[in-house]
Amino acid sequence: MLKQMRMQLGMSQDALGAEVHISGSQIGNYESGRPIPPDDVLAGLVAVLKAGPELQELAERARGEAVAPWLRSWVENERRAAIMRTCHANLVPGLLQTEAYARSVIAAGPHTEVQVEEITRERMARQAATLGREDPLLLHAIIGEAALRIGDSVIMKEQLDHLVGVGFLPNVVVRVVPFSAGPHPALTGAFEIATLIEGATVVYRDSVDEGEVVTGLATVRNVQRAWELVSARALPCDLSRDLMMRVVDDHEHRIELAKEHPERH
Q1: Are 224 and 193 in contact (CB under 8 A)?
Q2: For residue 142, what is the enclosing H or E element?
Q3: Burial track 98-130 (b if 16+ CB lie within 10 A, e otherwise)
Q4: pLDDT value of residue 264
């Protein structure tokens, strides 16, 4: 793109380099894609070439692809994912949490009130950056039935209503593994599989204190197999939605009981 824009203006590499105070050979290096122009040089190139946002976007994408997936944070991999598969037996996945649910889950950990609010804000921003982007990823979430039932009923009713709603989006699939399905691999720990835009597959495995980003072929294959085993036990979307609505009714019943008999709650 850089070379094409330069040639359209009839400029040599040396001429363009002189405009942004670098050598013509360095312009050649940038055009070959070996290094990516730093921000100050890129801003100069955009101004001289009268380029639109596409040059900036290409540079940012190239910088990201130059960083190995296992060196990025999981949030960065989420933002670069084309497909995300997430499996949680006991919790609603972070990308599908309501703010109230997220806050309650985070508050259950060893955090101060200030930390709870900071982490909650970060989680909501993470959702917006992933599901709210112009080209939203395909998100396939499998959730254990326990995740639908654990928690304050007022918060859980709102959370399940949200799950039912997002399940109608064309890029979101929400399925539930019922108690009747018996043991499955997700019971040993939550995991996520991201298929990145550039084609790489990255796995995230959860733990008590911090998660682990994995790209090793053997581990990725094992986690993918675990996904297939859990997926085979999960209900189809329509039956999952029916189960969620039944659990919503259960939470509504508990809310009414709490109003009628506050001394018991």
Answers
A1: yes
A2: strand 138-144
A3: bbbbbbbbbeeeeeeeeebeebbeebbebbeeb
A4: 64
Distant-in-sequence, close-in-space partners of 174: CB < 8 Å, separation ≥ 6: 96, 141, 143, 163, 166, 167, 237, 240, 241, 244
pLDDT of residue 75: 80
Can you say how many angstroms the Cα of residue 161 is from the centroid of all Cα atoms in its chain? 21
CB 45 within 8 A of CB 55: yes
Q: What is the predicted pLDDT for the residue at 223? A: 94
Determine the pLDDT at residue 40.
Answer: 79
Residue ranges, the chain, pLDDT below 50: 66-68, 70-71
Q: What is the pLDDT of residue 51?
A: 85
Q: What is the DSSP letter of 178?
A: -
> Tell me, what amino acid is at 233?
R
CA distance 192 to 93: 9
Cα of first residue to Cα of last residue in the chain, in angstroms, is 65
Q: Which distant-in-sequence residues (6+ apart) come within 8 Å of 65 by Cβ? A: 198
Residue written as token pair 């955009």: 46
Spatial separation of the C-alpha atoms in residues 209 and 238, rounded to whole Å: 35
Q: What is the per-residue pLDDT for 70?
A: 47
Helix (H, G, I), strand (E, B) or coil at 75: helix
Whole-number Cα distances in Å, 21 to 1, 18, 36, 245: 20, 5, 16, 64
